[in-house]
Give the backbone structure.
Amino acid sequence: MLKTYEFFADHRIHFNLIETDRSDVVQQVLDGNADIGFFVRNDADAKSMIWSKEAGRLEFQVLDQGNYYICVGPKSEFYDRESVRYGEVKDCMQIALDMEESAKQDLYFDNALLRDGIQEKRIFFNTVSACEYFLLNSDVVLFVSKWTVGCFDHSQIRTIPVELESNLPTEGINELIMVKRSGEQMNETERVFVEAVRERIGKEEN
């Protein structure tokens, strides 16, 4: 989003950026408080069904796809690796950045992780700074998508690509999703904005 903002150096497009959990992104769009929403999902994400009863009122568009990465600090056994296999890290103590109410109540579960028996090896935080502190001071790992690579400025935190086995339920793919209200045409400003987001994604990959 910052790169998209900088792309419009003449400030001919203005937008309000709201950072919140995925279900609230969808609800904000449904309620008309936001025109466009962005979130990351994968096929095994149980939370992707939260808004299924409202799916007919929404249009979802996949803007990009990407594999998993892990963030680790200097105390991790994987710190000097250039890549890791999923089987090596699936049993490690994990941390997760999650602001949703179900996570705060310790009710969150992910179907793929549940099948792998690691749902009890996660600690949930609702701030990036708390995740950063644990990464720097313990051997935990944090799974991230490619669109959140670089969320930690600290030079001692490394981001490492994860090689996933072909039989993993998620197949190692995350999707960056745009959501809007069904039947409503995007205006010119919105179209230009979304295309600018697409262009920024393409430049990042190159």
Summary: Residues 42 and 150 are 20 Å apart (CA to CA). Residues 188-205 form the longest helix (18 residues).
